[in-house]
C-alpha cells in the first residue's frame, strides 16, 4: 500500500453514490496537503475539481459494475490549488464483506506541460508555414510583404497590419509603405504620404530601438496615452523594430481597433517568428530597389 509508487486510497461506497475515504497512503496525504486523519472519512469528491465532482457518481457506478476505471482528472489540494492526475480504480472484495474501491493515482503535471508545449509549438509552426508558403510562391518582394500582412490580419485577429519607415526618432517624418487593413478601419492613408514626426511618436521609437523587444498594450480611457479623437481607433497594439541589412530600421505592427484585447504569450512567440520572415522579405525588397535605382 505504501510502496505502490503512486497515490493510493481505499474507498468505501455509500448510499449517496459518493465513496468515502477509508484509508490513504502517505503519498496521497502529502500531495493533497492533508493529514491521514483529515482524509479518512472525507467524501472522495472533496478531492475533485468541479468537473470531477459532477462525474463522481457515474465513475463510481462504472467501478462497482466490475470495470476498471482509467481516467485523467484534476485533483484539488487543501489549499485550493489543482493538479492533473491519471486515475486507475478497481472494485475489490474480501470474503463476504461489502466491496471496496482501490484507487491508484499519478501526478501527470509534467506530461501535461510537455503536451501543452507540443501543442503550442505545432500552432506556431503551422502558422509560420503559411508565411513560408507565401515566400515559396512569391516572385515579387513587394507583393510578398503585402501578402504576409494580409495573412496577419487573420492570424492575429487584428484590424490593421503595417510597416513603418523610418524607425528614427530624429527623422522629420515617417511613412507607411506597406499596410493591410479591415475595410472598416482604414489606415495611414496613401503609401507615400509623409507624417510629421511628433514628440509622442519619437518617444515610442526610442523605446523600440532601445529595448529591441516586442512592445504591446492597450489604449484605455483615463490613461495618459489615450486619445478619444484618435483617427485610427487603436484599442490594442503590438509593435517591434525591423533591422534590414540596408538603410534605416523599420517598424512592424498590428492594431486591434474594434475592442481591446490581450496578446497571448503564444501570439507573441508567433509574432516574433513572422517578424523575422518579414525582415527577410524586406531585405530582398530594399536590395532590389537599390539595384533598380
Q: Layout of helices and strands, plus pairs?
A:
Layout: E1 7-12, E2 20-24, H1 26-32, H2 36-39, H3 50-64, E3 69-76, E4 82-92, E5 100-107, H4 109-137, H5 141-155, E6 160-165, E7 173-181, E8 195-196, H6 199-211, E9 215-218, E10 236-242, E11 250-256, H7 265-292
Antiparallel strand pairs: 1-2, 1-5, 3-4, 4-5, 6-7, 6-11, 7-8, 9-10, 10-11
Please, could you describe this protein's structure?
The structure is a single chain. The chain is of the alpha+beta class and 293 residues long. Helix content is 38%, strand content 25%. It has seven helices and eleven strands. The chain has helices at residues 26-32, 36-39, 50-64, 109-137, 141-155, 199-211, 265-292, and strands at residues 7-12, 20-24, 69-76, 82-92, 100-107, 160-165, 173-181, 195-196, 215-218, 236-242, 250-256. A six-stranded antiparallel sheet has the order 8-7-6-11-10-9. Helix 4 (109-137) packs antiparallel against helix 5 (141-155) and helix 5 runs antiparallel to helix 7. The longest helix has 29 residues, at 109-137. It starts with 6 loop residues before the first strand and ends with a helix. The model has no long low-confidence stretch (mean pLDDT 87).
Amino acid at each position: 500500500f505504501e510502496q505502490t509508487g503512486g497515490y493510493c486510497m481505499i474507498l468505501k461506497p455509500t448510499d449517496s453514490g459518493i465513496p468515502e475515504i477509508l484509508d490513504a497512503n502517505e503519498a496521497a496525504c502529502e500531495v493533497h496537503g492533508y493529514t491521514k486523519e483529515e482524509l479518512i472519512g472525507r467524501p472522495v469528491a472533496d478531492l475533485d475539481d468541479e468537473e470531477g465532482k459532477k462525474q463522481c457518481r457515474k465513475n463510481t457506478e462504472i467501478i462497482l459494475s466490475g470495470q476498471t476505471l482509467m481516467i485523467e482528472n484534476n485533483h484539488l489540494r487543501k489549499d485550493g490549488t489543482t493538479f492533473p492526475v491519471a486515475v486507475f480504480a478497481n472494485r475489490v472484495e474480501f470474503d463476504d464483506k461489502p466491496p471496496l474501491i482501490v484507487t491508484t493515482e499519478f501526478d501527470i503535471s509534467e506530461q501535461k506541460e510537455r503536451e501543452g508545449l507540443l501543442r503550442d509549438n505545432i500552432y506556431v509552426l503551422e502558422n509560420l508555414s503559411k508565411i513560408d508558403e507565401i515566400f515559396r510562391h512569391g516572385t515579387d518582394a513587394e507583393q510578398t510583404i503585402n501578402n504576409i500582412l494580409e495573412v496577419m490580419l487573420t492570424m492575429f485577429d487584428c484590424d490593421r497590419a503595417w510597416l513603418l519607415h523610418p524607425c528614427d526618432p530624429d527623422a522629420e517624418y515617417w511613412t507607411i509603405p506597406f499596410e493591410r487593413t479591415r475595410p472598416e478601419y482604414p489606415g495611414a492613408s496613401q503609401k507615400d504620404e509623409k507624417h510629421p514626426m511628433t514628440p509622442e511618436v519619437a518617444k515610442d521609437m526610442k523605446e523600440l530601438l532601445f529595448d529591441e523587444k516586442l512592445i504591446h498594450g492597450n489604449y484605455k480611457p483615463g490613461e495618459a496615452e489615450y486619445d478619444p479623437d484618435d483617427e485610427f481607433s487603436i484599442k490594442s497594439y503590438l509593435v517591434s523594430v525591423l533591422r534590414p541589412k540596408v538603410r534605416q530600421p523599420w517598424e512592424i505592427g498590428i492594431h486591434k481597433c474594434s475592442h481591446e484585447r490581450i496578446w497571448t504569450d503564444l501570439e507573441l512567440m508567433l509574432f516574433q517568428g513572422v517578424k523575422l520572415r518579414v525582415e527577410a522579405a524586406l531585405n530582398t525588397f530594399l536590395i532590389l530597389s537599390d539595384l533598380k535605382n
